[in-house]
Amino acid sequence: MDLYEYQGKQYFHRFGIPTSPGGVADTVEEAVVQADEAGYPVVVKAQVKVGGRGKAGGIKLANDPGEVRQHAGAILGLDIKGHVVKRLWIEHASDIAREYYASFTLDRPNKLHLGMLSKEGGVDIEEVAATNPDAIAKLHIDPVEGLSQEAAHRWVAEADLDEAARDEAATVLVRLYHCFVEGDCDLAEINPLILTTDGRVHALDAKVTLDENAAYRHPEWEELAGTDTDDEREKMAKERGLNYIGLSGSVGIIANGAGLAMSTLDVVTQVGGSAANFLDIGGGANAAIMASAMEVINADPAVRSIFVNIFGGITKVDEVAKGIIEALERVEIRSPIVLRLDGTNAVEGRALLAPHLSDRLMAESTMLGGARRAVALAGEATQ
Ligand code: GDP
Ligand code: MN
């Protein structure tokens, strides 16, 4: 789960990582209130989960309430790479002497944590990695040993951070590492980490990705959930506990198991169609889950046909059939449905559905045949 900058900064705060005082605003007037509170000058910052906001006009300095109104008005509703700004973060502006980069991620193949530190911050780190890889000081950390203050000191020297920044930067890095480990992050990134003109080091931006596998030990994460996507379909699916990813095509897909769902996407593409989503109803799916899945797909206005591809294993096809019947009774499904049902209890499942078959609900015996039919029904040219 990706956090917004303001959530990332709140997360940093818990681990003692210094940030600028500020607050969120969803309207121009709220922005002015937050700016008065933070103290002028302030920075008005678009809250969207995408980088490069600065270049896109989503970050502006303001010296007085008039400028806050002007910038907040312009940034709210702004489309940044497909993300519409609905919330702002207003913070007291910093006087920047230097911009650095710092992050921790997991180096999976090496089974180590990986820290990256650079004095060339503020810009895309991918760009630095491509044009000036030597400017990134990498540090592999054994999770058992952790990052000591001494190791952090050697690291800031190796990265050649300005002398004035080194002590505080080392402290921030140790805290960021704690945030990464104890905070169960997949990524904890500060870009830029700044040295101010009066010699302080603090985080001017925050990019945090939480490892959702650790959610069970973080009840406090619940308040962050639901804000992590702008996609209404994904929100709806999440509420129903479904493994769903929204895509931009017209064929809605329901399959059991991530592998089968992926291959279904491939086959739909192969025959000339485009998938509207990825939806894996899971290994032990029952009627209720199937009905929820149908509802989520039905709520997507781009969907023009639905391809249900089930290979029963632990999932019993007769259960899935019951879910389809339940969904048909519960909601009016807008799109024609193509079924390919095989595996455990397929015979029973098909028998349950037989009386319901029509030109809105049809059965195909193979995955390829089902995909072709669904793509044709969606009005896409089949191959
Ligand atoms: P990003 O473009 O989405 O990564 O947004 P950032 O939060 O990293 O901000 C982009 C750039 O805006 C920074 O690299 C700074 O140069 C500038 N910026 C952000 N906050 C301040 C501030 O408080 N003072 C000044 N002078 N510049 C800022
Ligand atoms: Mn940034």
Task: Describe the 3D structure.
The longest helix is centred in the middle third of the chain and has 20 residues. The chain folds into 3 domains: 72 residues, ATP-grasp fold, A domain (Dna Ligase, domain 1), CATH 3.30.1490; 129 residues, 2-Layer Sandwich (D-amino Acid Aminotransferase, Chain A, domain 1); 146 residues, Rossmann fold, CATH 3.40.50. The protein is built from 12 helices and 18 strands. The chain is α+β, with helices and mostly antiparallel strands. Strands 7, 8, 9, 10, 11 and 12 form a 6-stranded antiparallel β-sheet that branches. A 4-stranded antiparallel β-sheet has the order 1-6-2-3, covered by helices on one side. The site of guanosine-5'-diphosphate has 15 residues, from strand 7 and strand 10.
Tally of individual domains: 3
CATH architecture type of the largest domain: 3-Layer(aba) Sandwich
Residue-averaged pLDDT: 93
What percentage of amino acids are in beta strands?
A: 25-35%
End-to-end Cα distance, whole Å, is 37 Å
What structural class do the secondary elements suggest?
alpha+beta
Shape: elongated
Number of strands: 18
- The number of helical segments is 12
What are the segments in which pLDDT stays under 50 over at least 5 consecutive residues? none
Q: What ligands does this structure carry?
A: guanosine-5'-diphosphate, manganese (II) ion
Look at the structure and name the CATH superfamily of the largest domain.
Succinyl-CoA synthetase domains
**H/E series:** HEHEEHEEEEEHEHHEEEHEEHEHEHEHEH
What percent of the residues sit in helical stretches (DSSP H or I)? Answer: 25-40%
Radius of gyration over all CA atoms, rounded: 25 Å
CATH class placement of the largest domain? Alpha Beta
Largest sheet: 6 strands, antiparallel
How is the CATH topology of the largest domain named? Answer: Rossmann fold
